[in-house]
Write a structure and sequence with these properties.
By secondary structure, this protein is mainly alpha-helical. It contains 15 helices and two strands.
């Protein structure tokens, strides 16, 4: 049975969900490629839009009528279950998985202090005392940030259009201040979450204004991708985790809007979604990939560095096939999760369901 048969709604809704899951899957594969430290220009291009793309899609999917009726409290509770609970669960899982490396790296130092710093990272998803601790699956920082973005966006989207513009400008101004004055990173990336809510607003209005319907030919999104790519390469290095927006935040927002709109149109308009089951599966279970991504990279690099030293060969080139091996591993873990979740629904909490 196809993995896509989990959706049982009408055909129109199913098609919409398929292309959105497909694009999410592309985004999560790009995340894996970006974290694999492959060819630097490609990494720079990926970081120029792949994280904001998820914010844009979240805004595109927001059901204003549904959540306005249910209220902010129920919305916040639902998003807490969707993002925050899986965040802590996957951090705990990766902390256990990485304990052998943690023990080996810190056997000659104050292990208790380092463990406390690790727990501090889990609590805040930022550097603790200047120490960067990648073994705690840093890719998951996005979940707590997205949670805060959802809350800010809820308040934003329920304002009148004029106040939406005012608040969006305020959110952008806050990030200008924190960026240019090099303010410390805030817990759960609160300031970045405000920019995330602006990206969500962009996605929301792409849907509300039916911008995708106004594009008639493939030529337009192709030109948008070319233009966005040129801007990305010119704008410089970007990384939302570190609050790096390149030369200018407004340029960063513009390049993301261009790229996101173009990719959304292409995925929605494709008659055949190539490797549909694969990308849609990654899209639906992206939290699993986020949770295991850094852990997989750490163990993979340790293995081939060890082997390389033993045989006296630089195995840097192995990172390219390892990218595909990692994707295959994530896919197998997802299949295992599906079997476990089918037998016991309690496992669904790992993906926020």
């Amino acid at each position: 049975m196809s993995l896509l048969q989990e959706k049982t709604n009408t055909n129109g809704i199913k098609q919409r969900e398929e292309w959105i899951d497909y694009l999410r899957g592309i985004g999560i594969v790009l995340m894996v490629a970006g974290h694999a430290l492959i060819w630097r220009p490609l990494t720079k291009w990926i970081f120029g839009f792949h994280v904001p793309l998820f914010f844009v899609l979240s805004g595109f999917l927001f059901n204003r009528q549904k959540w306005s009726e249910r209220g902010f409290g129920k919305f916040a509770a639902a998003r807490f279950r969707n993002y925050v609970i899986p965040y802590f669960l996957w951090c705990a899982i990766c902390f256990v998985i990485n304990f052998p490396i943690f023990y080996f790296n810190n056997r000659h130092s104050d292990m208790l202090l380092t463990a406390i710093k690790n727990l501090g990272w889990i609590a805040t998803s930022i550097r603790v005392d200047g120490v960067f601790l990648p073994q705690n699956c840093t890719a998951l920082w996005f979940l707590t940030c997205l949670f805060l973005s959802q809350l800010a966006f809820y308040l934003l989207v329920n304002c009148k259009p004029m106040w939406q513009c005012v608040l969006a400008v305020v959110f952008i101004a806050i990030n200008y201040v924190t960026y240019y004055f090099e303010a410390p990173l805030l817990p759960w990336h609160l300031d970045v979450a405000l920019i995330g809510s602006v990206f969500m607003l962009i996605g929301y209005y792409i849907k509300e204004k039916r911008l995708l319907d106004k594009i008639q030919t493939m030529r337009v999104p192709v030109l948008m991708i070319i233009a966005a790519s040129m801007i990305i390469m010119w704008n410089g290095n970007t990384d939302m985790y570190f609050r790096q927006y390149g030369k200018d935040l407004l340029i960063f927002i513009f390049q993301v809007a261009l790229m996101s709109c173009a990719l959304m149109w292409i995925c929605r308009s494709m008659h055949t979604l190539y490797l549909k089951d694969l990308f849609c599966t990654f899209g639906r279970y992206s939290i699993i990939v986020m949770g295991l991504n850094i852990t997989t990279n750490i163990y993979a690099r340790r293995v081939y560095n060890f082997v390389g030293r033993r045989i006296g060969v630089n195995l840097r080139w192995v990172e390219y096939p390892l990218l595909f091996i990692s994707l295959a591993f994530y896919f197998l873990v997802i299949l295992l999760y599906q079997k476990l979740a089918a037998k016991n629904k309690k496992f669904s909490i790992l993906t926020g369901r």
